[in-house]
Amino acid sequence: VQLVESGGGLAQPGGSLRLSCAASGFTFSSADMSWARQGPGKEREFVAAISWSGREEYYADSVKDRFTISRDNAKNTIYLAMNSLKPEDTALYYCAKGWRRQEAPSWGKGTLVTVSS
User: Fold this and answer.
1) Residue 12 phi/psi, 5° resolution?
2) 39-50, pLDDT tens digit by residue?
3) CB neighbours of 96 closer than 8 A, spacing ≥ 6?
4) What is the dihedral of CA 89, 93, 96, 99, to 10 degrees?
5) Which of 51, 82, 98, 108 is 20 to 30 A away from residue 24, measured at CA?
6) What is the pLDDT of residues 54-90, one digit of tens each?
């Protein structure tokens, strides 16, 4: 199982970013997928999840109505569109195989999102 995150960077408060996660090594189209993040001095938390079919989604209260998770089963990729970014969204963002859990043997390197003026 390999999960490779990309798309992070520096954004201003109120700005937007779109993260991508390319997956390989398993049957992606049958797998629920999630995004998690770990901010400075904080524990890792799951912020969004999407079912294998794309019909079900989950969002943590902290990102609801601002973040949107999506997937492209033809490209073995999930996305996280982040709008109205806040400084507290600053974190390393990781994708995970599973519904609000990591079923892969290990986490990827993550992609760093920094929200600052």
Assistant:
1) -85, 155
2) 999 999 999 999
3) 3, 33, 34, 35, 36, 46, 102, 103, 104, 107
4) 0
5) 82
6) 999 999 999 999 999 999 999 999 999 999 999 999 9
